[in-house]
Amino acid sequence: MKSTLQSIAATIINGMKPQKIGRALGIGLRVAGRMASRRMAAHAEAAVQSPSLNRQVEDSAAANRAARQRAGQAGGGVVRGIGEFLRPFRRVGGIIWLEVAGVFFFLFALVFVRGVWMHRASWAYGPEHGQFWGSAAFLAIFLYLGATSFWRAWRK
Fold first, then answer.
1. Calpha distance 45→24 (Å, rounded)
2. What is the CB neighbour count within 10 angstroms for residue 102?
3. What is the residue-wise DSSP string for 137-150?
4. Cβ of 143: how many Cβ atoms within 10 Å?
5. Cβ(16)–Cβ(24) under 8 Å?
6. How far apart are CA 146 and CA 140, in angstroms?
7. What pLDDT is attached to residue 29?
8. Are 70 and 121 in contact, with CB atoms under 8 Å apart?
9. Residue 53 has pLDDT above 60, yes or no
């Protein structure tokens, strides 16, 4: 295998055409694949012929299962510990999130208050009648969202 890799490296360094480089790499991969398959077949035959090796494989599989189970239990404990540590921060973070969202909703409500104020003269029949009622509807929606956001934060 070593000589195959050396010959491939030598052809690349010497400046072959791309077609020849690809051909050399393909041949090298095929040779390496054959060598690997022969070694795997030899190990498989040895495992079939040797019962003690089968027992060792089964024992190592059981040991691996037990190690994975212990690691899973330890990992679960770590996750639970981190969750318990972060519980107060999660509560405070949720409250802050609700309050920040409420502030943004009230900022949007201020934008629509301006629209309602500008079109207040034509609330019933004026030329900007639709704009007044549209601004009023969005104002009501954002006031509701802001107020309920602060109310939910206060309830926590």
1. 32
2. 19
3. HHHHHHHHHHHHHH
4. 16
5. yes
6. 10
7. 72
8. no
9. no
Angle at 17 (CA atoms; ends 13, 18), nearest 5 degrees = 95
Handedness of CA 34, 35, 40, 42 (dihedral sign): positive
Sign for the pseudo-dihedral over CA of 133, 135, 141, 144 = negative
- Per-residue tokens: 28: 């090298």
Tokens 């034509």 map to which residue?
A: 122
Task: Say how far apart CA 86 and CA 58 lie, in whole Å.
Answer: 42
Using alpha carbons, select from 33, 48, 156 the residue that is nearest to residue 102.
Answer: 156
pLDDT for the residue 36: 77
Residue carrying the six token digits 């022969």: 38
Residues 6 or more apart whose CB falls under 8 angstroms from that of 16 comprise 24
Of all residues in the chain, the percent with pLDDT exceeding 70 is 65
Residue given tokens 């040797």 in the structure block? 50
- Residue 109's alpha-carbon distances to 87, 106, 128, 148, in angstroms, are 33, 5, 19, 14
Q: Tokens 């900007």 map to which residue? A: 128
DSSP 45-103: HHHHH-HHHHHHHHHHHHHHHHHHHHHHHHHHHHHHHHHHHHHHHHHHHHHHHHHHHHH
Can you give the pTM of this predicted structure? 0.45
Residues 6 or more apart from 145 whose CB is under 8 A from it? 101, 102, 105
